Amino acid sequence: MSLRAIVFDFDGVLANSEPLHFAAFRAVLAEAGVELSNEDYYARYLGFDDVGVFKAVASDRDKAWSDREVAGMVADKALRLEALERDIPVLFPGAAEAIRRSAASVPIAIASGALGLEIRRALRRVELIDQFAAIVAAEDTKESKPAPDPYVRAVELIRTVLPGQPLQASECVAIEDSRWGLQSARAAGLRTVAVTSSYAAAELAPHADLIIPSIDRLNLDDLRQLLSS
Q: What average pLDDT does this structure show over 65-86?
């Protein structure tokens, strides 16, 4: 079986933005009277999209926030994140090169719990948005990770740009940094590569076919070998 496509998570894989997301969530929640620790964010909430984070926090802290209140928090958090990103290089070292190297070989896509506006804004800043055949963001699927929906949708979109035999999920590799993302990709039928940018290898190993220390160590020959094994 040959490698026909690569699907990247965004935050924590291509973008060193998880600390910025945490800071934005913490500020919004503080205004609502909720303290969010770094430990809680990474242990409990990182895998959710923005709506999911606020709803999970509400459930955990016995808060009765309405859908309208949650939507307001999401909008506030987005504004805070944009402010934090100004004049800060968002991509990890080596991420731009990994994107170009991958896109030169096979179609690539993003499957992320981040908002599409945030993803596209970051990619436009570094003139890389045209490298991606598809971008699946938080608002593009009914269910977020760890449900398979984001990766199912990404494969569907890549399939429309690939000639020849219809693309199968098993011909694609997902690059993820969390167990939620790895579970999502596996449930959708993709092979999985974990990047240890957010969690230790031991925590990711049960869900990953391959583990790499950073995105700049992504090797396409290793991915091809993964699919041929």
A: 93
